[in-house]
Amino acid sequence: MGLVEDFNGYRTKMNERIMASDSLIIKRIFNLDTNAYAPGALDVKSKELIGLTCSLVLRCDDCVRYHLGKCKEVGLTTDEVQEAMGISTLIGGTIVVPHLRRAFEYWDELSKNV
Fold first, then answer.
1. pLDDT tens across 12-69, in order?
2. Among 81, 92, 106, which residue's Cα sits nearest to residue 54?
3. Which of 11, 42, 79, 85 could bond 46 through an S-S bridge, CB–CB 3.0 to 4.6 Å?
C-alpha cells in the first residue's frame, strides 16, 4: 500500500472504532467538524485551505494529510495549495518546515493517484 492508502485505511478503521463507542461528546465533536466544513458564507475550497493552513501551523501531520486529501477532492490546484502552505510556514515559522516536507510528499502522492 502507498502513503495515501495507508493513511486513509487507518483513519477509516479508527474512526469506525471511535464512532462505535458510546461517547456522546466524541460523536458531537465529529458532527461539529463535519458541519463546519459544509458550504456557508465561505465556500468549501476556502474552508479546506483554512483547515490546511491551521493544521500546518499547529503541526498536526494527520490533520494536514486529511485536509490535503480534501483539497484535492474539491479541486484545488497545486499552486493554490502551495501558496496556502507558504503562508502557513510564514506564520508558523521554520518549525513548520518538517511538516511542510511531509505535506509536499503527501500532495505529490495524491497527485499521482488522480
1. 999 999 999 999 999 999 999 999 999 999 999 999 999 999 999 999 999 999 999 9
2. 92
3. 42
